Amino acid sequence: MYVKSLRELSIFAFAFHYRELHEGADFSQFPLYTRELILQWLFDHDTGLLLESQPPGSSRPRYQHTWREDVDTVDEQHRKAAIDTYFLNTNLFLGISRLEVVSSEILCDELLSALSKQCANIKSISFDHCKNFSDEGMSALALSGKLDRLESVEIVSCDGYSGRSLDKIQSQSLSSVILRFLRIEWASFVRMLDGNQQIEVLDLQSSSFNGGVDELREIPFILEDNLVSLVLPKTSRRLEPFIQALCIHSPQIKRLDLTSASLERGLIELVEHCPEIVDLQLTFCHRLLSGSQSEIYNLPPRLTTLSLAGLPVTTDTMGRIVHCCPDLVDLNICGVPAAMQDPDFLKLIAERLGGQLKRLNMNHMPVLSDELLAPVGRHCQTLEDLRLAGSPHLTGSSLLNFFTRRGSRLNRLTLYCAKFERHVLEAAVTHCAALARVDLVHLGAVDDDLCQLLASQRSSTLKKVGLTACRNVTDAGVVALATNCNLTSINLSGMNGITNKSVLCIARCCPTARNVYLSGCSRITADAITYLKDQCIGRVFVSHRNPSANNCNLINVFNHDIGHFVTVNSETGIY
């Protein structure tokens, strides 16, 4: 249970009465840290401001912060009224140097323009799922000179942003650029790189480019030796030219994510010219193994993190990989067929790496058995993260000794194994003293008693818990976890037995929660969710979609493969 500090309670009291107080408040007299807290609270709870704002001439009644009915969208008039009322005529932005905004309805171009007139030189920007701002707002910040000392920028899933303003960012301090799930203008992106050649970290996960896209090899050509971490965007282009450019211009690179890349050759060149690589992601790089597996035999020798997820790697190939990368501590073999078919595959990994392996991802192995898993439980002594989602035949018997004798360092455990036995779960809860995250999906052995045991044994360490579709858990189990643990993420999807009591307890006892998943919990109401959002200190993401049917033949059903509810067409089965 988290107890709000006096400072946090004061911010809450001020923010809840912000509408009455802001006109007479001189924010310049407030310490910078206090103004940062107030501004962050307003961004994180902006739905209340939008609902309370009345456009000129409107007779729409005001809403109260607490127990209001939330809305998904707010029209532009109310957004403008909220900005005019609460932001434009104050000096709240004075001296602000960091912006971290998630899922905000109120963040828009007009607000960014107002911010550019008051704030100090901004050092860090992070906009995540903010759909109402565009390149115009970012241009206003850049042209005002407030981004001249920018150190990091992160923009994720912001539909209105196309990256046309990227070339206006010119900062000698910029070292990290994260642009995920975006559609980016290629020409502007390249000009941004040209103007900020000191960038060290570039993350383009699941983004794509439009315009006249030239070869991705321009990235290492421009950034050269400064580039140390690169996550490539979605692309159908062959990447052999990119690998060649990387080897020539950025030999000091340490992290490279090639997920789903179209690549048949180039790993041998990486070994020869980029010996500093310690993190390599080859997830779904199927072309590497389209012929012989000789290309993957040789990997950078200093690798500590490697993902081979979805690749048909043989036991012989795995043996050669382990031999040339003796320092591996983080291994992702999610969905690798040989792990489910050849007893020597996991045995080889466990015997060679068991004394040092910290993270092992074995998700999506539907025919994995306890016998095949036994070497992991017997030899892996330093595991901190173990993931076993999608193995319905596992009972956990082969991991019992691991949990009781060698699991003291385990801090994350993921299990989607319907037959997992109760006494093995109890052993994990009781003896794994470092557990900070536990995800248990569709386990019949999980009930209120196990939740209470988990709450009592791991009250000081547990931060994230998932009980998706564990239908034997009721309000009593959730309340035990919420009152004993300072939870920041709670997944209760598919649990029909819980009610508003669970949500209200989370709101009161876990105000630092950032993610709460309640899809399929049909007994939970909108009022309880609104109360939860109001009581949490920061922005809390709440997913609450109930199974339903309508005239469009769409229904929400529980997908056992991914452990979440999805929308499915009842006639075609497509979701």
Notes on the protein architecture:
With 575 residues, this protein is an alpha/beta fold. Helices cover 33% and strands 15% of the residues. The protein is built from 21 helices and 22 strands. The strands form three sheets. It has an 18-stranded parallel β-sheet. The chain has a two-stranded parallel sheet with strand order 5-7. Helix 15 (370-379) links the parallel strand 13 (359-361) and strand 14 (385-389). The chain is flat and about 70 Å long. Residues 59-73, 548-552, 560-565 and 570-575 have low confidence and may be disordered.
**What percentage of amino acids are in beta strands?**
5-15%
Unreliable residue stretches: 59-73, 548-552, 560-565, 570-575
Distance between the termini: 38 Å
Q: Mind telling me the C-alpha Rg?
A: 26 Å
Mean pLDDT, as a whole number?
A: 86
Counting helices, strands and paired strands, the structural category is alpha/beta
User: Which quaternary structure do these chains form?
Assistant: single chain
Major beta-sheet overview: 18 strands, parallel
Fraction of residues in H or I helices: 25-40%
**Number of β-strand runs:** 22
- Helix segment tally: 21
What's the shape?
Answer: flat
Question: Descriptors for this entry?
Answer:
disordered C terminus; 575 residues; two-stranded parallel sheet; single chain; 33% helix; 18-stranded parallel β-sheet
